[in-house]
Amino acid sequence: xxxxxxxxxxxxxxxxxxxxxxxxxxxxxxxxxxxxxxxxxxxxxxxxxxxxxxxxxxxxxxxxxxxxxxxxxxxxxxxxxxxxxxxxxxxxxxxxxxxxxxxxxxxxxxxxxxxxxxxxxxxxxxxxxxxxxxxxxxxxxxxxxxxxxxxxxxxxxxxxxxxxxxxxxxxxxxxxxxxxxxxxxxxxxxxxxxxxxxxxxxxxxxxxxxxxxxxxxxxxxxxxxxxxxxxxxxxxxxxxxxxxxxxxxxxxxxxxxxxxxxxxxxxxxxxxxxxxxxxxxxxxxxxxxxxxxxxxxxxxxxxxxxxxxxxxxxxxxxxxxxxxxxxxxxxxxxxxxxxxxxxxxxxxxxxxxxxxxxxxxxxxxxxxxxxxxxxxxxxxxxxxxxxxxxxxxxxxxxxxxxxxxxxxxxxxxxxxxxxxxxxxxxxxxxxxxxxxxxxxxxxxxxxxxxxxxxxxxxxxxxxxxxxxxxxxxxxxxxxxxxxxxxxxxxxxxxxxxxxxxxxxxxxxxxxxxxxxxxxxxxxxxxxxxxxxxxxxxxxxxxxxxxxxxxxxxxxxxxxxxxxxxxxxxxxxxxxxxxxxxxxxxxxxxxxxxxxxxxxxxxxxxxxxxxxxxxxxxxxxxxxxxxxxxxxxxxxxxxxxxxxxxxxxxxxxxxxxxxxxxxxxxxxxxxxxxxxxxxxxxxxxxxxxxxxxxxxxxxxxxxxxxxxxxxxxxxxxxxxxxxxxxxxxx
Length: 729
Description:
This protein has 729 residues and is of the alpha+beta class. 26% of the residues lie in helices and 27% in strands.
């Protein structure tokens, strides 16, 4: 808590006296009775302070400070622990008693050392932890900070590098035998040989912070103490595997991340400057003692045997500054400092041109994976590509996310000025489309430049537990607009996203008609389609389970199989088919008939008109007029068909029949896994029934793979429409 004085000075007061004193006694190893004896008071008096029944007199405060080995100001403000307690240090997990060895954190191998992957995972986590009650966006800042000279020496002293160095040396000695050791060895050598160290700090504001106990269930323990645990705040959260945090350590060539969290909910009576560090190294042996892998930087926990286990601590402002973890204000959120950041994936790209100064190579001309200008550019590009929707506002809605990126050297030197990521730069057309949707400015069909067409597409949700049938139909929202800018690359793609507004799936629409104008499309599913969309929550749950750890597609996953069924992914395939069909319809150029072509000529001539032909009095038979067939991911035939309907008083219902073309004998008939009406008709127990008065109808279908006598790739499909009213055709 900070109080404003009359002359502008600020006095900072911390937690209540009782909990603070209890922790100081624990840290210093004193009992209540021992403190009472030093103060010349009864144990009951000290107990009353700790339980909050009373507070000590000002004169006694002086004696308490002396007994705790600190100054009077620390006792009065209580914004930090006394320095007389157990000192800061590194706790390294001992080797396993059974001799087992972990040669690296397996979770980190799920991701590459890639700042673009880091941006995707960390920004997704910040979105998931956004505080929503105030309606404001979560603000995320990425700071690339290169340390050299004295600044590097001071930082190494702050992290107690001399304590860590024997462990790094032990890893380097056996680096040739395993991957993690080679990465760590290269990181240490780069720091010493080139006299530099790159820090990459990720700060978020208006987020929950790492709340909870050091060890019990909570967000702090899930990130700092555990693997493969995800405790996200919302149902529309992007993460679900607990793997995303591993990107922080994967991006550090030294396997070291420091953390400073400002909490949205107090812990131990405090909220600001909760610090901890975690080191990820492979198994090693130092001075004859084996160590399992991870280590923690903090204050020894007096509740642990021998006070060897390090726990988080409430740091003073000076310590936070020395560790380069100072936050800009007291807004809740977390700062992650990646020590020894590198970007191996950047080697696959051509070094970017950022002005007169060369970048991307070191002094010897070799590719440099620690160039902060190059990493800056890749971060901006990735954030704009994956989170453009979360950064887009409109229709009275604030954006959910604001992102800033900067690069500095040794605190004072600005290498690349801070830049706010602008979604309209990386995704101009899609940003325009989403803004139009928010503002209610969409149209049913594209007729003019700059318009945005909107169309609902169905996602039929399966029942849990493998039961047959459909829980309900969720109406996703498809937005289509022209690709009007060279930045819209690649073109003719659909970006799919759900509640947290991160792009999950990017897919090109196949088999577009020749001459189609370039376009871009957005698919809003789940809560992204609006809270009023039917079954929005259920769609969120279903699609979240269909995402792999990379969160870059929807498809078959183990969770989808276990909670729904092995065939549940087909519902997603049908959604894709519906989306592609709707896109083609929205972007197709209307065919001009000979009647339209000759309109100008008819206006100039006098032509004797013929009497209109009368519609047939009896039933008319619809005719299959168009067919688009592809083989799906699981070997099924997927079709999009168009039917022409003659004029008539009665239209005969038709049964679509899928068969395999063979050279001789009868054609094998295939079963339908799904038939879906798109326009001008409805599907009733496998029968197409046509809307009165329509001249054209469309439907989609997918065959049942189990009814295929041979592998689909070796066959040809024949589709027929047969007259029928529900009987087997």
